[in-house]
Design brief:
The structure is a single chain. The chain is 69% helix and 7% strand. The protein is of the alpha+beta class and 382 residues long. The chain has helices at residues 2-15, 19-40, 50-117, 121-127, 131-202, 206-251, 261-279, 297-306, 316-319; strands at 324-326, 336-339, 345-351, 354-357, 366-369, 375-380. It has a six-stranded antiparallel beta sheet with strand order 1-6-2-3-4-5.
Length: 382
Amino acid sequence: MPALASHRRTRSRSAKPSPAVGFTTAALAGVTLLSSQSATATPSDPKPSIEEVQKKVDDLYRQAGSATQEYNKAKEATAEKRREVDTLFDEAAARAEKLNESRRALGTYAAAQYRTGAVTPTAALLFADSPQAYFDQTQLMDRMTDQQRTAVNDYETQRAAAAKQRARATKRLESLTESQQALRISKQSVQTKLAEARTLLSELTAEEKARLAAIEREKEAEARRKAKAKAEEEARARAEAERQRQEGDRTSPETGTGTGTDDGTYAAKADKVLAFARAQIGKPYVWGATGPSSYDCSGLTQGAWKAAGVDLPRTTWDQVKVGQRVATADLLPGDLVFFYDDISHVGIYIGGGKMIHAPKPGDSVREESIYYMPIYGSVRPV
């Protein structure tokens, strides 16, 4: 027993770590912790300036506007292809019914042939009620043979037509599926861009938001100054045109005093366009919307010109191709003014350097200077 106790005391002493070992372990742990902290710690990114935030937000809204036009294009294509698919499948069903009619006709002839085909002419004559009845039946069978050939040909024609119609419908259905996928992608793109812009704005302090608002006011004031200069230029042009008209009246009374027929027709349409647009002021911008309670930019211009009896395409990219291109200096009320290099925004010119447009999410339809955004070009729908 003493030996066993001595052995236990020896094991206990040898199992106790020495002070040197304990210190080394702690030191290593500390070094590991410091290394880990050094590896994960990175210098914080410098906070963007208010001007950089504004530029980024404006760019995100512009990208969202472009993505909205992609969405509008995909939505229009999807609706058109859905109508085509429905029509094609209706036609395919009609073809199938015709095919079934031909098949039923063939079945009638096949049954008749089966009933009479096993009887010899001699037996048929013997079993007939009279020789005349036999000859009448023979002629009927000859005619039936001609009709049968016609029925076979008709069946083959209907079968080929039905197969072709089904193939067209199936192909168009595949195209519809692709359009629906494009619609989902463009919708997600719009939502992503808008969410990024909202996040950037939400991270600003109250002071930064005030500074951003001041920058926006400066931008708007500059746009208004340019619009005022444009209005003064237009007033001078009208005064000069009136002076020349009066001089023309004095020298050539028979030339008349009105504007040309084309100008008068366009002005009449423009009045309807502007009346519609003004009635929408205050309604919210909603991307992809075409009214009547909300609009996006091209939805507003499409609705306004429709009120004047002119059907415009859905997207800004297609609207810019309609009508006559005009210079900014020659704008007339009713003209469409397009913005940015990607033609992602449009407004309706009302004169005096101003337009009515649906600006962006969070805003409402309003009047604004055309110089608030970089102008791409303008068209006059005619």
